[in-house]
Specification:
The structure is a single chain. The N and C termini lie far apart (about 35 Å). With about 220 residues, the protein is of the alpha+beta class. Strands 1-2-3 form a 3-stranded antiparallel sheet, covered by helices on one side. The chain contains 7 helices and 3 strands; from the N terminus they run ααβαααααββ.
């Protein structure tokens, strides 16, 4: 079983502090590549495990405490697909929960890696900064890429960071209504395509989006 350690930062929950925590985590991952992944979020806990749903609150006892309250939660129940289940691939990841497949993942990873020097220059970090984790799922790679855009200052909202990965199709109504900002963002990257339903959050904002072709079903019940 994985060894879990949780820290509780005492500093103010500012955007700049979160940015520095993310760089600290990236630095630790570059030095300890074989260790479990880190979360280091002051705004939201990231609880993962190779567990069934009924085991989850038994393992994370915080969830049974009445004082443990939140306005929303992202829950992902993984089932056996094309990768071997493991603790470090349990979802949700740091920002994204993903159901489906990204069929263009090989080229997406290569194009993102080709832009490593550009990203590191904009983030003012050295060659130690890893853009992508190794030996992870397509979902985890998407989460890595999504985090890069957030570190650059983009919002997780659908009109900001997501168009960089999932720009609207030219034949879709959303393409005709797109703001100029989305055009600029979508030209900076190649689409991450495949049947996918995505839920994303930075701890303050939560949203959901389908793939560009709408191949993966997603229901939103009224509450």
């Amino acid at each position: 079983m994985a060894i879990l350690r949780r820290a509780f930062p005492s500093r103010a929950r500012t955007t700049r502090f979160e940015w520095r925590l993310s760089l600290l985590r990236k630095r630790a991952e570059s030095l300890l590549p074989r260790r479990s992944t880190f979360a280091l979020f002051p705004r939201k806990p990231s609880l993962q495990g190779l567990l069934t749903p009924w085991q989850f609150p038994q393992f994370y006892e915080d969830l049974r405490d009445p004082s443990f309250a939140t306005t929303f939660a992202v829950f992902h129940q993984r089932y056996s697909t094309n990768t071997q289940p493991s603790w470090h691939l349990a979802q949700p990841f740091r920002y994204v929960a993903h159901n489906g497949e990204i069929n263009t993942i090989v080229s997406n990873r290569r194009w993102l890696s080709a832009k490593a020097a550009e990203f590191r220059s904009r983030l003012t970090v050295g060659s130690w900064f890893p853009l992508l984790e190794e030996n992870v799922s397509d979902s985890a790679s998407f989460d890595n890429g999504f985090e890069l855009r957030l570190l650059e200052g983009l919002s997780p909202r659908r009109s900001h960071a997501l168009p960089w990965f999932l720009p609207p199709l030219k034949r879709s109504p959303a393409f005709a209504r797109r703001p100029q900002r989305i055009d600029a963002l979508s030209q900076q990257s190649e689409p991450w395509d495949g049947p996918a339903a995505l839920v994303f959050s930075d701890g303050q904002f939560v949203g959901a989006k389908l793939d560009r072709n709408g191949l993966r079903p997603c229901a939103t019940p009224d509450a």
